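Example (one chain per record):
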Amino acid sequence: MKKQNAILLARLNKLGSQLSALIEYKNEIDKILLVKNIFDIEVFQTLNIMEKALLDAYLKRFSSIQDFLGAKIFPLLLEVSGIGTSKMSEVLNYIAKEEIIDSLENWIEMRETRNDLEHDYPDNIESALNDLKKCLDLFSSLKNYTDNSISFAKGYLE
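Predicted structure:
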């Protein structure tokens, strides 16, 4: 069990670093949103390369954190706590039951939005901007899922 604890601790440290970067990106995007409606197609097309790169970095980090939580953190949290699971559906059900995520439906919706962004192309900019807005709106949920994971783990790592 000590090996799993060490692995979980290392993964949580990585997750914390990823979350810190996401917070920085979100703060910078919020500054842009004070002066520009980036969700308007015409405004979006006038963004400079650094602003677009910031949005891209946010989306990549958002996706990375969600992937990391689902694939690397959630199953190990359950393993360390003594809950054995083999299927992702079981993992997510237990994670929701433990209130690490607020609901399975919200997690799936977040996942679908993130997946939509992976498949939107420049010719479908309106859809991509709607998904970008959803991901920005989901920032608090993703942060809460991360914070809840860390809090849950503390009970087993001490």
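Caption: The two ends are 13 Å apart (CA to CA).
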